[in-house]
Write a structure and sequence with these properties.
Elements (H helix, E strand, L loop, with lengths): L6 E5 L4 H12 L3 E6 L2 H13 L3 E6 L5 H15 L4 E4 L14 H29 L2 E5 L12 H21 L5 E7 L5 H8 L4 H9 L10 H12 L10 E4 L11
Parallel strand pairs: 1-2, 1-4, 2-3, 4-5, 5-6, 6-7
Helix pairs in contact: 1-2, 1-8, 3-4, 4-5, 6-7
The structure holds nicotinamide-adenine-dinucleotide.
The site of nicotinamide-adenine-dinucleotide has 29 residues, from helix 1 and helix 6.
């Protein structure tokens, strides 16, 4: 029970990796705030947590909208009185080259994927400072090892890795740690969207598995366990880190 009587806010936790993180923090005793644009998904996550004996609330949030994020912060503090962990996980992915990406799609990726990290961190920092809490940002192996036809997305994930280091050095002396996770392919929404954008989604899924040294894609819980570690006191001397959780994807191409 590493987070007993503590509060964790997870953005984009109405599905996929975010939902797994919300469940993992609740499993460690945290009161969890499930913040997502998708209210139905957020409520389903809350139900799953309650069914497992945990405590969570759903808050409809658009991480790219300053007033929505301010409302998230106010509701979190009104309900639980404090916050110890912020997981900035919400993101979208446009599977296109820069030439095919519209200006609106480019802006949407920047404002949700990077702007969301900025806004949530900015407005939760005063409270995280009070608890000497920590931030876990969801980046990607695509922050340093890119793939075709998701240029804007790769740019946002590299920006998150940079922002993680910058925030770590700005706030480390205040006791706030900031790290990011770089997952490989994980069986969740964004990877599924990528597979579906390919001519043969099933083939694309199989081929993606073989890009990893372990010859499979990962499970959301395998990322969630690392998020819990990074946010916990077990990682008390870890800050500014990009933690790779990629089944060996970034190590190089495995044998065929
Ligand atoms: N799935 C993968 O293979 C993979 C790999 C590397 C990194 N990641 C990262 O993990 C994170 C989660 O990805 P996933 O695959 O679980 O995706 P997902 O689509 O299952 O979940 C993303 C969630 O974010 C929410 N969201 C989208 N826009 C939002 C907004 N403006 N405000 C609030 N919530 C919003 C969605 O409603 C959704 O519930 C992302 O940051 C992604 O970049 C995923």
């Amino acid at each position: 029970m590493k987070f007993k009587n503590k509060c964790a806010v997870v953005t984009g936790s109405g599905s996929g990796i975010g939902r797994a993180c919300a469940l993992a923090f609740a499993g460690e005793g945290a009161n969890v705030v499930v913040a997502d644009l998708n209210v139905q998904g957020a409520q389903d996550t809350v139900r799953l947590i309650a069914a497992a004996g945990g405590k969570a609330i759903a808050i409809e949030t658009d991480v790219s909208n300053p007033s929505s994020v301010e409302a998230l912060v106010a509701q979190t503090i009104n309900t639980f009185g404090h916050i110890h962990t912020l997981v900035n996980n919400a993101a979208i992915q446009v599977n296109k080259t820069i030439e095919d990406t519209s200006f609106e799609e480019w802006n949407a990726q920047l404002s949700i994927n990077v702007g969301g990290v900025f806004l949530c961190s900015k407005y939760f920092l005063p409270y995280l400072r009070n608890t000497r809490g920590s931030i876990v940002n969801m980046s990607s192996v695509n922050s340093f090892f890119v793939e075709p036809s998701c240029a804007g997305y790769c740019a946002t994930k590299a920006a998150i890795a940079g922002l993680t280091k910058a925030m770590a050095i700005d706030h480390g002396h205040e006791g706030v740690r900031v790290n990011c996770i770089c997952p490989g392919y994980i069986d969740a929404g964004l990877a599924e969207g990528y597979f579906q954008s390919q001519a043969d989604p099933e083939k694309a899924r199989k081929e993606a598995g073989k890009l990893h040294a372990l010859w499979r894609i990962g499970r959301p819980e395998e990322v969630a366990r690392v998020a819990v570690f990074l946010a916990s006191d077990d990682a008390s001397f870890v800050t500014g880190a990009s933690m790779v959780v990629d089944g060996g994807f970034g190590s190089g191409l495995p044998p065929k």
